[in-house]
Fold:
Amino acid sequence: MVLASMDSPAIRRLSAQIVNRIAAGEVIERPAAAVKELVENALDAGARRIEVIIAGGGIERIEVIDDGNGIAHGDLALAVENHATSKLTDEALVRINTLGFRGEALPSIGAAARLTLISRPPGQDAAYKITVAGGAVGPVVPCAGAAGTRAIVEDLFYATPARRKFLRTPRAEGEAAMRAVWRLALSAPQTGFRLVTDERVMFDMPPQDEAPRVAALFGRDTARTMLSLDAERDGVRLTGLAGPASLSRATAGLQSFVVNGRPVLDPLLKLSLRLAYRDVIPQGRHPVAALRLSLPDDALDVNVHPAKTELRFADANGVRSLVMGAIGQLLVRPISLATAPMAPPSGFKSSGIMMRDQAARGFAEAELGLLTPPAARPVVRSDPAETNYPLGAAVAQILETYVLAVAADGALVIIDQHAAHERLTEERLRGEFEAGAVLTQALLLPVVVDLPPYEAAGLRAHAPALRRLGMEIEAFGPGAVLVRGLPAALKNPDAAALLHDLAAEFADTGTAISLEARLDAALARLACHRSIRAGRRLTVEEMNALLRAMEQTPRAATCSHGRPTFLKLSKAELEKMFGRRG
Ligand code: ADP
Ligand code: MG
Structure:
């Protein structure tokens, strides 16, 4: 080897200021991160109300005002010093009940920007102020100020121009900052939140319960349709609101996860949610949910990432099963229950929002004298016994595509015969799959697939799971796998591509998502081909049989593409539409 120069450069210690600026970049990489850290400090200080004011995307100015317990004037200088915190009282990083604990945020912000901290603990006569600009700490001076703390950040990254170059437009940075406040506001409904961006009030919410907070931040119409869940498993509790299958969005923007009070962007939770909805919402669409997980502190490590948004669960599989199980239960609610939220299945209560709506409707119906409606007999003769079912009795078929039915409560039900039957067929095929009857197509010539040794080992370890999914593999030396059979339903997939995907997934998630997803897609395709088409005329008996089967089938409210299988218009809704009732 030839060295360019024989003089080795001298090693010298970096100044504390430079160290802080380097470290600052890890904690505060953009305005949203500064906003998040300041709001977390306000929440940790027990604030009842927090106001966030953002200007110029937060690059120009961020201000966070709280009415929390403040910083004593003797502690102000310490608060902006690196690794000084009031929150870790012992050396164990295990039990962390506060949002902050590293003592890095204020010094990082002070290193990268101009930070002014004004604080007055409720018992202290006057407020005091300290300023840190580019790491230079000013004196502590008395000033005017309300009880609580006001943190002002100006000219973010003026002291670290290299970092400033990586910022996006003020508009994009401002949106990210708003998202950060949105997530924190969802995590702490008991705290009032006001957000002002470029002089516009984005929201102003009092301290409130979780359901109205979700309604305020997800939109009232969206929240109204969401179902509440409450499930527990091995000391881990999952609560919150999740959308029905019919509710989906083009992005994952309406998803919030809170773990032990901390808003997180955790990949495991996101994936679990996606998997829970995989069968009921169309590909490329995203479910809507506000979920809250509570677990013992020692089952969780929050000290994985400087921004503390990723976690390590001691029992990741347990957490995933809990999320998928609880939401799965919510989604397979049979139609009779899904449309009758007053009688939810045990263990899952309806959301407060729905309960209130239901109560309001009951009240309106009582007023209208409709609480004991006269049995609504269809005009067209049909078996009267059928009207007592949730989807009612079929009375007609229109356009050889839709079945019209009338239920006992007078509701008019319109069923898309193809969409409905497709779901029934798919669920039957899935039942066969789950009973272990996945057909394997043996390969005439087994295929050898070369893989990195660790991936090959992962696949071999999951061979029994793969066999249940119709895939036969065997070890073939350290870095290869021999494929002897593939699921028949897949019709000659590319074995190598499938194995590469599966190996990566086993490494990431411990499950065979791509195989399951492909089998799902294959099932859906099969179901589609084996289902009655639009355009086929049905007898009344066939129509009623279809309705009764739908009532018995999980997830029957949507087809495999996520479209609704039926629409229901209640008697009250019909009356309202015709202007018979106000
Ligand atoms: P951390 O939150 O990890 O402790 P920070 O740098 O964010 O570190 O804050 C340092 C300390 O300053 C906190 O431990 C806390 O004592 C004090 N502090 C910061 N912001 C506030 C606030 N809004 N209200 C009360 N005390 C605060
Ligand atoms: Mg903090």
